[in-house]
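cron nightly-structures :: item 1 of 1
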Amino acid sequence: MPEGKANPKGFYPEIIEVGIVSVVNQIIQDQYSSFVRPNNFPKLTERCKTFLQISQEKIDNGITFNELIKVLENYNYTQPVTVITWGNMDMKVLRQNCQMNNLEFPFNGKYRDLSMEYKKFFGDRNQTGLWKAVEDYGKKATGKHHCALDDAMTTYNLFKLVEEDKRYLQKPSPPTIGDRIDLSKVLKNYAT
């Protein structure tokens, strides 16, 4: 997050924190959280530190971007994963950071932007923020806003709520004639 309106020469957003909630068959398998040291713009601006409520020391003690890619590849190791985020910026920034560091993008599975699904499902005109969406369900978000792991857990909890609503509102398939009539009784009448 650059100070003011002018970006430093060559500026692009770098990942400084990662939070992952890994889920298989609706059961949390793993959680991962770490700060990430930026390569090209290692010094955080005051604006960034204030907005995210983090210190330069936490970032300086974080993992490298290359280490982050190895962590992400491990989640994609056994089979392609479906990555679910709230908004599209996380994946855009990850792709851009991979390109800028000459690294391969770590995921080869599906990607879902839950904020767009939420917007479409509820017919909203504007994109709703993560914490506002949770509050609209009458729930509370997990932990601290803009903390990567807390936001990942909140996204997962919201995902469960949206999927439950989708299932509830799905039109059931119409019954077949076999569902309406016991054909064994009808066949008995014709067999005698």
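cron nightly-structures :: done
Residues 148-169 form the longest helix (22 residues).
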